[in-house]
Amino acid sequence: MALTLKSQPIETPSLHRFEVCADGLGRYTIDVSLPRGYEQSDTAYPVVLTTDGNILFDIVQVQLHGGFAQQQTALPPSILVGVGYPADEGSASWYGRRNFDFHGPWDMSNPLGQTIQQIFGMLKGADGKPELEIRAGGYTRFMAFLRDELLPALAQRFRIAADGRHTLIGDSSGGHFALRALYDPTSPFRRYVCVSPSFGTADGAIQEAEAAYAAHHTDLDADVFVCCGKVEVDQSPMMAMCRFGSGVTWLAEQFAIRQWPSARVHWEVMNNEDHATIAPRAISAGLRSVHRVRPGVHDEEIRQATEALMAARRAAQSAE
After folding, report:
1. DSSP code per residue over 235-261
2. Listed residue (38, 84, 26, 34) closest to 57, CA to CA
3. Interacting residues of 29 by C-beta distance below 8 A, sequence separation 6+
4. Residue ranges of E strands in 149-188
């Protein structure tokens, strides 16, 4: 008997997409995923915000709100926000804009910067956009956009906890941005998942930010997960110039030196992962780490979170 396939509409009331334009930066595609039960509650939720929403939003969404996560998770309910770049701008624009957004001042004259410019040249040639340019220096403006424009605008549309311990996720140059934000007193985030942070781009910027913060503060209230893939460390000259492994170990060492009372860091060099494969595994481990529910590390917290989740489900079923 031949099987008949009947198309069914897929309703996704928990997913929203917006386009916004930030002065001095350009257009962004903003994706939002709401936690299960959002419409039936009046709860205000913390935000998990991922940079590079074009490539990371789906990965994070599965971890937070996917079908398996709804049945088997100890992660607390959160509103997921992906900040990406419009697909119609092309790959070269994406590559150039993220380089600007995620870095402070950097003349890109060192070998790594020159290599990035060569890659950008190939991308803009393929896109047929020879007029595009690549540069750095947008960190302050991009952070202000997230902090002063995007999050307040989203809070007017969705129930976002004003005092929530919001999470920032960044990968590669986005990981550089996340580490830089960690030492920014104006950052609205208190949890950081830094995947393969490019310690070699804008070389010295993160160390300078850390030193400036330490000169005026005696504590750092943050949960941090930082990792890279073992293959990234010695895979190629460019990977080595990015200094992914150096960023991981430097942060762990600095936390040990500073002994911030409220700071918690978990770091890891993941076996059998390279720059293209690490994100799913790292984001899964990172979210659980910064929310203190990673198996084998936070077993008591997992037990408490699981009991709270089951109690909430029983309460919801009783109310139906």
Report:
1. S-HHHHHHTHHHHHHHHHHHHHHH--T
2. 84
3. 17, 18, 19, 53, 54, 82, 84, 85, 86, 87
4. 166-171
Contacts of 319 (CB under 8 A, 6+ apart): none
CA distance 260 to 249: 17
Dump pLDDT digits (tens) for 181-202: 999 999 999 999 999 999 999 9
Q: In terms of Cα–Cα distance, which of 232, 250, 105 is closest to 172?
A: 232
Beta strands 263-270 and 47-50: pairing type? unpaired
**Average per-residue pLDDT for the chain:** 93
Q: How many angstroms separate the most distant Cα atoms in the chain?
A: 75
Decide: helix, strand or coil at residue 225.
strand
Averaged pLDDT for residues 289-313: 83
Pairwise CA distance, residues 278 & 171, whole Å = 9
Backbone conformation region of residue 257, classed left if phi is above 0, alpha if psi is from -120 to 50, else beta: alpha
What pTM value is reported for the model? 0.93
User: What are the two backbone dihedrals, phi and then psi, of residue 199, each rounded to the nearest 5 degrees?
Assistant: -75, -20
Sheet holding 166-171, edge to edge: 15-22, 26-33, 79-84, 47-50, 166-171, 189-195, 222-229, 263-270
Measure the CA–CA gap between 21 and 170, rounded to whole angstroms.
21
Q: In whole angstroms, what is the distance from residue 120 CA to residue 202 CA?
A: 17
Cβ proximity of 49 and 81 under 8 Å: yes
Nearest to 273 by CA among 265, 285, 264: 285
Per residue in 228-246, pLDDT (tens digit) is 999 999 988 999 999 999 9
Rounded to an integer, what distance in angstroms lies between the CA atom of residue 77 and that of residue 238? 38
